[in-house]
Amino acid sequence: MAMTWRATILTLYPEMFPGPLGTSLSGDALSRGLWSLEARQIRDHGIGRHAKVDDTPAGGGPGMVLRADVLAAAIDAAAEEGDIRPRLLMSPRGRPFTQADARRLATGPGLVIVCGRFEGIDERVIAGRDLTEVSIGDYVLSGGEIPAMVLTDACVRLLPGVMGADASGDDESFENGLLEYPQYTRPREWEGRPIPDVLLSGDHGAIARWRRQEAERLTAERRPDLLGAR
């Protein structure tokens, strides 16, 4: 039997999980054992009677910073020696997460994801525990939990057996460097807007050409940067 894809989330708010990951495709796959999810409390490794996890920034400045020693202890407990799963830190300064990344990570053994909070984490633990910083967009959220859910969902839906049809993801946005073509279903006409005739023609070659043209048109209009990258 194939090894289960494992996601371990390090967070100050483990009660946020599974959250959306426990519903729909990912939740069904979780219940069927196609992947596993563990949310671990960073504060379990806090310092002193109050389990302190943060301190003031060196050099001054607003907010608080997660301590390197606390976070390193949490990572070491979650990913024991020999654990080959990539270690990711959700961070707005990280490299943008892409569909290609999701494809690559879904073929591996799983992930260890660190969810930052406050002003960030001590820089030393990023290097000391080989964390790869990843961003889901050019904006800042209150913490890394929602980004961790986004990234995990993007990977889990690509695992074998999760989507209903093997080819379900083949023509989706970003899979071929293009945005997805428009989709239609019944009724044949709605509020004076008909389904394009070509989609009802039964001519599979013509349908494929139309879909390709529409994908290229939408990409040129909305994401010309993708065309440049191709």
First CA to last CA: what distance? 38 Å
Q: pLDDT under 50 segments (min length 5)?
A: none
How many β-strand runs? 9
Assembly state: single chain
As a whole number of angstroms, the C-alpha radius of gyration is 22 Å
Q: Can you tell me about this structure?
A:
The structure is a single chain. This protein is α/β, with parallel strands linked by helices and 230 residues long. It has 7 helices and 9 strands. It has helices at residues 24-31, 68-78, 99-106, 123-128, 145-156, 204-222, 224-229, and strands at 5-11, 35-41, 54-55, 65-66, 87-96, 110-115, 132-135, 189-190, 193-194. The strands form 3 sheets. It has a 5-stranded parallel beta sheet, with helices on both faces. The protein starts with a strand and ends with a helix. The mean pLDDT is 94.
Write a brief structural summary.
The chain is α/β, with parallel strands linked by helices and 230 residues long.
Short key terms for the protein model shown above:
two-stranded antiparallel ribbon, 5-stranded parallel beta sheet, 7 helices, single chain, alpha/beta, 230 residues
Q: Topology of this protein?
A:
Blueprint: E1 5-11, H1 24-31, E2 35-41, E3 54-55, E4 65-66, H2 68-78, E5 87-96, H3 99-106, E6 110-115, H4 123-128, E7 132-135, H5 145-156, E8 189-190, E9 193-194, H6 204-222, H7 224-229
Parallel strand pairs: 1-2, 1-6, 5-6, 5-7
Antiparallel strand pairs: 3-4, 8-9
Helix pairs in contact: 3-5
